[in-house]
Amino acid sequence: MKNITISYMDSMPNTIKRMININILKKHPKVLIVLLLVVILGVIVKITGVTQTEEKLTIENNLSPWFTINGNELLGEERTFGILDHPSLELKEEGFRADGESNVFEFYFWGSEGELIGEKYRLVATKESSNEEKTMYEQMITSNYSYEEIPSAQAQSGGRIAFDQSDAGIWLMEVYIDGRVFSSFSIEVKD
After folding, report:
1. pTM for the complete prediction?
2. 92-127 pLDDT per residue, tens
3. Are residues 85 and 179 in the same domain?
4. 151 lies in which domain range?
């Protein structure tokens, strides 16, 4: 077994040899095998161009997700964050309008009540074509008072969303809680 370990060591680059305590590898050849697998995986990732997934989602991979809870239509990220579609607004049929009108929406949050309630969220929109960014709303998250409407949500809040006439296009919507992206999805704003 020592010969195999030494032959593995001979094929390793000098920089890796310096980082590894050779005595540990002689006593525990499985450690060497694990390290080699990590190095090989790193080389494969580098060659194939696979990169780590970033916390921030892109517009292209997350367009307009609608989901239904208790007969109510919501826009957002299922079981994370949703904007309730009120019958008077017909958001699902009409979409967001670039008309400058500010509409009030109910926002629902899923997760640990202790981590949500009392926290301040920030809803940020970024336009796909120009990377223009605007904060749509900031508000405190409260308990879910509309339990009968959306019984599975742990928390809720409300907020106004308005897009100006020049805002038509695709927008990435990101909900931040405590400075981190909590939810991310895209919407289309129509003329």
Report:
1. 0.66
2. 888 899 999 888 899 999 999 999 999 999 999 999
3. yes
4. 66-190
- Say how far apart CA 188 and CA 139 lie, in whole Å: 23
Give the number of domains in the chain: 2
* Distance, CA of 85 to CA of 73 (rounded, Å): 6
Q: Are residues 90 and 28 in the same domain?
A: no
Do 38 and 70 have their domain in common?
A: no
Q: What angle do CA 63, 48, 29 make, to 5 degrees?
A: 125
3-state DSSP of the chain = CHHHHHHHHHHCCHHHHHHCCHHHHHHCHHHHHHHHHHHHHHHHHHHHCCCCCCCCCCCCCCECCEEEECCEEEEEECCCEEEECCCCCCHHHHCEEECCCCEEEEEEECCCHHHHCCCEEEEEEEECCCCCEEEEEEEECEECCCCCCCCCCCEEEEEEECECHHHCEEEEEEEEECCEEEEEEEEEEEC
Please check whether residues 159 and 72 belong to one and the same domain. Answer: yes
Max CA separation in the chain (angstroms): 77
Phi and psi, residue 42, nearest 5° = -60, -40
